[in-house]
Amino acid sequence: MHFNPYGGLAAELAVMLVNAGPDLTPDRLLDLLRDRDYRPAGTCSDAELAELTAWARRLEEVFAGTVDRVPALNALLAESATQPYISEHHGRAPHLHFAREDGPMVARLKAYTASGLAHAFCQDPDRVGRCDREGCGVVYVDTSRNGRRRFCSTRCSNRVHVAEHRRTRALV
Question: In this record, what's one Pfam family (predicted)?
Answer without folding.
Answer: zf-CGNR
